[in-house]
Design goal:
By secondary structure, this protein is mainly alpha-helical. The chain has 21 helices and no strands. It is globular and about 70 Å long. The two termini are 44 Å apart.
Amino acid sequence: MHTQRPFLDCALEGVTYYYATSLIVVVGAVFGATTIGQRNRVPAAEAGVLGRFANWDGVWYRQIAEDGYSNDPTRLSSVGFFPAYPLVARVVADVTRTRVDWSLLLVSHGALLATFVLLGRYVQERFPREGRDLVHFTLLAFGLVPTTFFFRMAYTESLFCLFTTLSLLGMHRRWHPLLVAVVVGSATATRLVGIALVPAFCLYAWRHPPGPAERDARDSQLASGDFCAVSGRGGRYRAAAKIDVARRLLALGLLVAVAMWGLIAFITFQWVEFGDPLAVVKTQTIFALRHGQIASMGERLLAAMTLEPIWATYWPGDVGYWGRYDPRAVPVLSLQFANPLFFCGTIVVIAIGCWRRRLTTYEWLSAALLLLIPYVLRSHDNAMAGFGRFSAVVIPVYPVLGWLLLKLEPGARCAILCVSAFFLGAYAAMFAANYWFV
């Protein structure tokens, strides 16, 4: 059996992979901003190379960090974005006295660096018999999947990945449920899809072993021969058991409230500030590509079950056709073209992980919901836009990808990693050059 390495070794390993893979993105983004040229198809965060790291959604996060939230039910407004990331960036800007555009990147890269370190440690503890190679290839996969270039931009993805990884590590290490609930709640303050972590947390909180006081009481009953109280015979025990279940259900309900503290706080803020607790949901429909044809929930479910959002991306006669939204790009370099491919590929990796028993219940449940929730709610209205990015934050996928890479022949493995690195840099360059990249 492989012994567990010191945390400092894991930290240095995480820093190394963070630096090497992030360098590809930074070089690509600088090349895109300075050489490819600005397309000016969407407003940039500000002029210059630094502003190119805050294109698209980054513009809104910068606005929130600088000016706070605004809401206009008839047009695009900043209330459509969750608060954790821009608020942390605002705090960093105040403490370090740097510009907000710098603080946004500091938060993104700081969270990403921490995720590299924690993910390496998590894989080591989850698979202690498989050696360091699995950690290496897991971190390579996490760093080189092409859509992870968003992790280095002024986007929420890296912060969300940090909270997801921390929650999985906490459940693996059997942290107190209250501590895990606070972490999961932080994820719900970062992105709406953070609620995908709540069911796995509920299962963990219910399975969590009794506290020391309860164990001592049970051991005392066994030692005194009070087998009736322990084995379940007798009315007194049944009554006590019912009380215990009720107590556990009450505790679980309170823990779930804590696990959703971020979402609850944001809803409360919208209610107090704008008089509409669901302003974020209504605004996100305006951001949707099909904002003039928003479907009902029944229509979304039917579309999801028939896989309509996926095949419509490649059907020229459909309003969801990728070329309608990204007409200047060739398919091989179009993220709108590739979004369904990343989504379907992630599903395949999850299925392999379940089949080969590489995923725990907490992992596959979280992974499945991280994909299912946006697929049902947003795939039709948004014509699959953003699904490469949504798939990238499914943290349980990366140890499976690392294991698959480990099984490949060295030549095939090297080819896959080189192609991934190329697209990682190319996507970063096109993002910085203001191509359509959502």
